[in-house]
Amino acid sequence: MTFEKYDDMVFVFDHPLIQHKVSLLRDKNTDTKEFRELVSEIAMLMTYEVTRDMPLKEIELETPIGIARTKVLSGKKMGIVPILRAGLGMVDGMLRLMPMIKVGHIGLYRDHETLEPVEYYCKLPEDASDREMVLLDPMLATGGSASAAISFLKQRDITQIKLMCLIAAPEGIRKVRSVHPDVQIFCACVDQGLNSDAYIVPGLGDAGDRLFGTK
Ligand code: PRP
Ligand code: URA
Question: Whose CA is nearest to atom 7 of ligand 2?
């Protein structure tokens, strides 16, 4: 799969299947069932590239015909952490390719007075600090949620973190790049920007509501 490099740490996927599916996702006439399936499928397709640098080791095994020297995954294991709630939509697609990976969850809300993101829920695998953790959220808008979630992971001694989203605004990319320059960002599209309500334009609307049919 090829991708456009926004900068050294930002990867924008240009695969035709991903682009096609993101277009369907954006369409306001796409219903909840199809939206959910598309988010899952795109997450699965993006997994190929997000895992590209996973280390391999050579092993020897017996096939029905003879001895094969072949490769299997080795080194740091991976975990995924959806940001509640819309990130949940991306979990299933990744698990279909990597059924053994562990799944943490992180929930954030924005404090009405300080406007700062507050963590209201966090449950991570016990060995999370030994894993590479991929944070999942379909939307990177102002970047406030993703930056805060990355900070919360770092506070728990997790040092290897990637961010995987579907649609990103330039503002969100700039925010995450400035606060967490060590974190690679993977996304399917970079849109024009944000409107006055901090929604991505043209984006796809409210990802959580469209995934769960709450509006
Ligand atoms: C959405 C989205 C991100 C966040 C992005 O979640 O899924 O988590 O907004 O915005 P930001 O980059 O400006 O922080 P939302 O807060 O609407 O919650 P939800 O998933 O429960 O719908
Ligand atoms: N959250 C969403 O769900 N959509 C946006 O466009 C911005 C934040």
Answer: 199
pTM of the shown model: 0.94
| Three-state SS at 8 | coil
Give the three-class secondary structure for 17.
Answer: helix
Ligand at minimal distance from the CA of 141 is 1
pLDDT digits (tens, 9 = 90+) for 150-194: 999 999 999 999 999 999 999 999 999 999 999 999 999 999 999
Strand-strand pairing, 105-110 and 117-123 = antiparallel
Contact status, residue 121 vs residue 113, Cβ threshold 8 Å = no
d(CA 126, CA 147): 22
Residue 46 Cα, ligand 2 centroid: separation in angstroms?
Answer: 20
Active site residue 53: no
Give the chain's count of helices (H) and strands (E): 6, 16
What does the pLDDT look like over 109-120, one tens digit per residue? 888 788 788 999
Q: Return the ∠ at Cα 183 (arms to 181 and 87), rounded to 5°.
A: 135
What is the sign, positive or negative, of the torsion defined by CA atoms of 133, 139, 140, 142? negative
The finding on whether 88 has its CB within 6 A of some atom of ligand 1 is no
Please give the distance of CA 142 from its chain centroid, rounded to a whole number.
16
Q: Is the CB of 161 under 6 A from ligand 2?
A: no
Q: Which ligand does the CA of 146 lie closest to?
A: 1
